[in-house]
């Protein structure tokens, strides 16, 4: 299987995983929207919420990195700029979820 096919398969799998996670996230966001700070922190400190929010972040950033890299492939002709943009995108897609997940898991 070549690289482009793998990328397409990963996009389809990650989007299929994201659908139920996003439904869960949206329903819970609506339920905690009008809550005060303590109730929101309590929501994020429960174990299922920590795990599901973490999975949502990882898959969302993975999917967005794949999608944006396709835009780079289509619209940036210079290979050096395209490679630099893809590397920066991948670094961003790794660092931001790690920082966010670390903060969520350190909530008490």
TrEMBL record:
NCBIfam families according to UniProt: succ_dehyd_anc (TIGR02968)
Positions of transmembrane segments: 9-31, 51-68, 89-107
Top-level taxon in the UniProt lineage: Bacteria
One cellular-component annotation, GO: membrane
Pathway(s) annotated for this protein in UniProt: Carbohydrate metabolism; tricarboxylic acid cycle
Pfam family, one: Sdh_cyt
Annotated InterPro entries: SQR/QFR_C/D, Succ_DH_anchor, SuccDH_FuR_B_TM-su
Assembly: Part of an enzyme complex containing four subunits: a flavoprotein, an iron-sulfur protein, plus two membrane-anchoring proteins, SdhC and SdhD.
Keywords: Electron transport, Heme, Iron, Membrane, Metal-binding, Transmembrane, Transmembrane helix, Transport, Tricarboxylic acid cycle
Subcellular location: Membrane
CDD domains linked to this entry: SQR_TypeC_SdhD_like (cd03495)
Molecular-function GO term, any one: heme binding
Membrane topology category: Multi-pass membrane protein
GO biological process: tricarboxylic acid cycle
Protein name stated in the entry: Succinate dehydrogenase hydrophobic membrane anchor subunit
Cofactor(s) it depends on: heme
Primary site of residence: membrane
Function: Membrane-anchoring subunit of succinate dehydrogenase (SDH).
């Amino acid at each position: 299987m070549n690289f482009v096919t793998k990328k397409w398969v990963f996009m389809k799998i990650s989007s299929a995983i994201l659908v139920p996670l996003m439904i869960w996230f949206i329903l819970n966001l609506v339920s905690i929207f009008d809550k005060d700070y303590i109730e929101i922190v309590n929501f994020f400190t429960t174990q299922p919420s920590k795990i599901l929010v973490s999975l949502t972040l990882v898959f969302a950033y993975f999917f967005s990195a794949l999608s944006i890299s396709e835009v780079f492939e289509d619209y940036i002709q210079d290979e050096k700029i395209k490679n630099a943009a893809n590397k920066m995108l991948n670094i961003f897609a790794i660092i931001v979820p790690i920082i966010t997940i670390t903060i969520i898991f350190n909530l008490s």
